[in-house]
Specification:
This protein is mostly helical and 336 residues long. 50% of the residues lie in helices and 10% in strands. α7 runs parallel beside α12. The protein is elongated and about 90 Å long. The protein starts with a helix and ends with a helix.
Length: 336
Amino acid sequence: MKQIKKLILYPLLVLALLAAAVSAAAWYWSTSPVTLQQERIDYIVAPGASPRGVARLMVNSGIDVNEDAFVLLARLSGVDKQIQAGAYEALRGDSPRRLLERMVNGDMTQARLTLVEGWTYKRIRQALRDAPQVTQTLEDVSDQQLLQQLGAEQQSPEGLFYPDTYVFVPGSSDFDILRRAYEAQKTMLATLWAERDPKLPLTSPYEALVLASIVERETGHEQDRSRVAGVFINRLRLGMPLQTDPTVIYGMGDAYQGRIRKKDLTTDTPWNTYTRAGLPPTPIASPGRAALAAVLHPEPHNFLYFVSRGDGTSEFSSNLASHNRAVAKYILGRRQ
């Protein structure tokens, strides 16, 4: 009887020891750093990817992980159906378990792209093209097609995208980021328009956007912003041309080479506010919140002119004679 018990217990003991050894080996493997070809490796998990597909992706990306062991780890952990799609990174020292936990928790890597106040739509598109972590999908999409995809009623994309820093998952498309910027600008404009000063000579939020884009390009000096807006509001009320150089530059397009000549001021374009009264047909850049707020809450005053002092601030005048003196002092004097 004792011999029978030994014959039964001995294999069980061996199996228990083997199981313990396998378990220890598995634990050691799952918690030991994997070998990486670089200090940091980025990879993107597609929606619906299986543990084996993820393991193969990591191997192809330069992460030395055993595919079978990774699949087993995911199944034994009960998370083989919980891996989330997205962009992830593997860092030197990461273990298979840490990599798996990161994907199960959705601990994704993030990238940032800043759209700057005063940038044109052309400049925004270039920034998207230059961002290596942005997937390009709009190369063959026209501006009109983009506006249709966004559901925009405007005929031009200029000014429709809110300048801000956008945090996104690497691999996000250029359209995804533009859509977020479009929605942010639309929301910001609607909010500020609802709170606008009464009796402004602006008939729609879009007109406010157009004027805000001009203010954005005319001054970056915080204290002058609402005063500059007040000058343009006063001119609109009186029916005076806005006579602002940034609109002329915008209308010149690629012909602008860094300076405006007299003939440029007299060459008519839809955006030349020297030859045409009122607002130009579209914004000339993307205005930020401060410029929008300045236009919708302009400083009340009687100024009709302003000129740059050359230090970022402006000199304001209520009549042409005073303005001409300021021009002689700050423009002609500086040139001499």
